[in-house]
């Protein structure tokens, strides 16, 4: 299996397109840091965090006084209020958006570009074997078909992780080039107590959770490419669903309870960390993970059944 993965990995990195993706990621992160800094200089004056925090306290107290808030939202407001009061009482500044950590902290929000690149790789890693005719030579090796497909699937997963690491690396580089180091600490409520949050620990956790969405969309593209043997079809459908799936699901959630069972209502696990708002009221991380696993099992079953049972030598 390791030899198969190594072979797929070498084939992947022998393509110019893979290196173009790395260059694009580097340019995107460095350019994003520069543009963000320029925009901040033009439009965002330096704000006294204490005044901003006092304003948040007044706003949250007003919201909590509203009697018709859902329980989940009321609890989030109470946690936010506790955090803001704790900051003021202990003189703990938040992480500034105009700081190195402020920009680096935005890296998880930029993983959509990695999702796009993963879709391209996942859609083509099987389909191109058929379009180029190399599948016949690949299947002449004394290796079971499921091992061949598994090696390709694992290669896609490793690619997504490596590209995410590259994204973070250039995010850090861009942050230190354009931004100043300003002290700041993230706080959150845990078991009723306000605690400090490790910046790097939370950042890596958010990246890991964001990778779940990357893997799911990549697995969808992998399945479509395996079944229809067309990378262009797999890329087109996957990208369309990536951009439209969440929007359509959100509109359905406004009227229908069943929307919570749709895949795209559950792929973003980051709202379950810290004081954030989930996609729909009532969703929990165990529920979302269960839904994701069910869909992944279906995707895997279809992919392996198609590759092993159909006439792949044709």
Textual characterization of the structure:
By secondary structure, the protein is mainly alpha-helical. The chain has one domain (2-44, 97-308). The protein has helices spanning 2-13, 16-43, 49-64, 71-90, 100-104, 112-131, 135-139, 145-178, 199-228, 231-253, 285-309, and strands spanning 186-190, 193-197. Helix 1 packs across helix 8, helix 6 (112-131) runs antiparallel to helix 8 (145-178) and helix 6 (112-131) packs parallel to helix 9 (199-228). The chain is globular.
The DSSP helix count reads: 11
Specify the overall morphology: globular
Q: What's the total number of strands?
A: 2
Number of domains: 1
- Classify the secondary structure makeup into a structural class: mainly alpha
Strand content: under 5%
Task: State the oligomer.
Answer: single chain
Note the main sheet: 2 strands, antiparallel
The helicity comes to 55-70%
Rg is 23 Å
Distance between the termini: 25 Å
Mean pLDDT: 86
N to C succession of SSEs: HHHHHHHHEEHHH
Main sheet: strand order: 1-2
Please mark out the parts with pLDDT under 50 across 5 or more consecutive residues, or reply none.
none
Sum this structure up briefly.
The chain is mainly alpha-helical and 314 residues long.
Structural features:
about 325 residues, mainly alpha, 2 strands, globular
Strand-helix topology:
Blueprint: H1 2-13, H2 16-43, H3 49-64, H4 71-90, H5 100-104, H6 112-131, H7 135-139, H8 145-178, E1 186-190, E2 193-197, H9 199-228, H10 231-253, H11 285-309
Antiparallel strand pairs: 1-2
Helix pairs in contact: 1-8, 2-8, 3-4, 6-8, 6-9, 6-10, 8-9, 9-10, 9-11
